[in-house]
Amino acid sequence: MVDGVPGGRESLSSCHLPEGRPLLEPAMIADLLNWFARYRRHDLPWRRTRPDGRRDPWRVWLAEIMLQQTTVATVAARFDSFLTRFPDVFSLASAGEEEVMEAWAGLGYYARARHLHHAAQRIVEKWGGNFPRTFDEWAQLPGIGSYSAAAIAAIAFGEPVLPVDIN
């Protein structure tokens, strides 16, 4: 891992366009990594790592969903209370929808909470509570589009995929 980036410089430099050209030039990769090292925020609750130094897929996934259309400040204020109520995917999967909606209060866009709940149920049913590891597996879940699938797979598992935000 280079400067907190899963896969580091090596994985970024190995991404190529179909024509074989590198997706990012080496100078741009260096600029991006330097920018990230300077401005990344360690204080955000979803950036906490497990004792082994790896990212917690539950926190990564939850943050990616909560941060859609919601400010960082709002999510930061609600994140830990949601985790206290649902400390793992099993507790969310077994909760009733009303309980999930109540815990989601203040974050808006309640369809995200419903999708998160249904996806948690599918993760428990299909993978026994083990998180999917790849972009393709994440993309099969309710409420997970290309950006979220790539972000979760890259951040939590180091898969060399790039989340691209077109906004």
Report on this model:
- The protein is mostly helical and 167 residues long.
- The protein has 2 domains: 8-39, no CATH class; 50-157, Hypothetical protein, domain 2 (Endonuclease III, domain 1, Orthogonal Bundle), CATH 1.10.340.30.
- Helix content is 55%, strand content 0%.
- It is built from 9 helices and no strands.
- It has helices at residues 8-13, 26-39, 57-66, 72-85, 89-94, 97-104, 111-127, 135-139, 146-157.
- The longest helix is centred in the last third of the chain and has 17 residues, at 111-127.
- It is globular, with a radius of gyration of 17 Å.
- Mean pLDDT is 86; it is low at 1-10.
CATH topology term of the largest domain = Endonuclease III, domain 1
Task: Please report the first level of CATH classification, the CATH class of the largest domain.
Answer: Mainly Alpha
Question: Between the first and last Cα atoms, what is the distance in angstroms?
Answer: 28 Å
What is the CATH homologous superfamily assignment of the largest domain?
Answer: Hypothetical protein, domain 2
Please provide a brief summary of the model:
By secondary structure, the chain is mainly α. It has helices spanning 8-13, 26-39, 57-66, 72-85, 89-94, 97-104, 111-127, 135-139, 146-157.
Q: SSE layout and pairings?
A:
Layout lengths: L7 H6 L12 H14 L17 H10 L5 H14 L3 H6 L2 H8 L6 H17 L7 H5 L6 H12 L10
Helix pairs in contact: 3-9
For this entry, give a set of tags.
167 residues; mainly alpha; Endonuclease III, domain 1; 2 domains; 0% strand; globular; disordered N terminus
